Amino acid sequence: MSKKRLGRRAKWLKGKFESHEKELVRYVFSLTNDLEIAREVVQESFLKLCEEDHRKVDTRARAWLYTVCRNKALDIMKKERKMVKKPLDEFEDTFSSHPLDDVQNRQNTHRLLNLLRCLSQKEQDVIRLKFQNGMSYKEIAEITQYSVSNVGFILHTGLKKLKSEFEKKEAREKEGGAR
Predict the structure, then answer these.
(1) Do residues 45 and 65 lie in contact, with contact meaning Cβ atoms separated by under 8 Å?
(2) Taking Cα atoms as reference points, which of 69, 9, 1 lies closest to residue 37?
């Protein structure tokens, strides 16, 4: 490989790293609850990206990286036989790019994050990828290996469950406050 081509490849890799490293670490951390493992998984994923032909991966590099990170994290969790959920306070911090000024909105966000526990792992994954990481249905489908229509269905049913649980919790709180 020529120096010029190596330079373009290095620049491309550096750009992908700078664009996606932090969001990938956040995502893997939300799955593993271990920052060191999250960093290691992301590093291994970028090393794997180095081995790929960037012309084949370029247009879908973000989804490719998420897929590799997700699969590596799931493998590690299976080996350790522990599916750990990220603490709610730390998960809430991942939304810091959209600061919530209103106290009521903060409380509602915390309630919704707490309610994520009522969802299946599949629903939690899809909701996190959509709302925490801002991914399209197509990107989520590529990462999870579900069809695009299945992603839409999982997202719809998960959000429906969240809404229902949120409304139930609000009703219980109002009943408790009215006494």
Answers:
(1) yes
(2) 69
Whether the CB-CB separation of 116 and 124 falls below 8 Å is answered with yes
| pLDDT for 104 | 62
| pLDDT digits 0-9 by tens, 133-159 | 888 999 999 999 999 999 999 999 999
Place of tokens 């990107």: 139
Q: In 3D, which of 99, 86, 83 has the Cα closest to residue 25? A: 86
Cα three-residue angle 124-91-120, rounded to 5 degrees: 15
pTM of the predicted structure, to 2 decimals: 0.63
- Express each pLDDT in 52-108 by its tens digit: 887 788 888 888 999 999 999 988 888 876 444 444 444 444 444 444 445 666 666
Q: What is the DSSP string of the chain?
A: --HHHHHHHHHHHHHHHHHHHHHHHHHHHHHHS-HHHHHHHHHHHHHHHHHS-HHHHGGGHHHHHHHHHHHHHHHHHHHHT--PPPPHHHHHHTTTTS---SHHHHHHHHHHHHHGGGS-HHHHHHHIIIIIS---HHHHHHHHT--HHHHHHHHHHHHHHHHHHHHHHHHHHHHHHH-
